[in-house]
Amino acid sequence: MPPTLKLTCIIDDDTVYIKLVKKLLQLKKLCEKIIVFKNGKEAIDYFSQENLEIQQLPELILLDLNMPVMNGWEFLEQYNQLKSNLGLKPSLYVVSSSIDPMDSEKAKNIDSVQDYISKPISLKTFETICNVIAS
Question: What's the domain count of the chain?
Fold first, then answer.
């Protein structure tokens, strides 16, 4: 059985995808708590809080690219400036329905991105990610 993560962060505006991921993580007990942001701006605001404690930082971030207000690329730009101030370095995966190979290549060339995963994300992929993070 894969280890349980304390906190996972989903940054995505697709409500069906969010429900599916939450259900998968909860059913398989891969994560204790999940926080959701509908766009990159909401997530940046969260990570920018001055009094953010280490237990409020996710071990895993699942980031969509195509969102309103602030997309995934814009989030990554600002997140990379913030991350040195964070005590914990979350594992960040770009999870997108984009079929553009340039998106995958661009994401994989960003230091803070662990990998690029195409939607829909499988249970096996989640289990693999959780094992990597926990080890």
Answer: 1
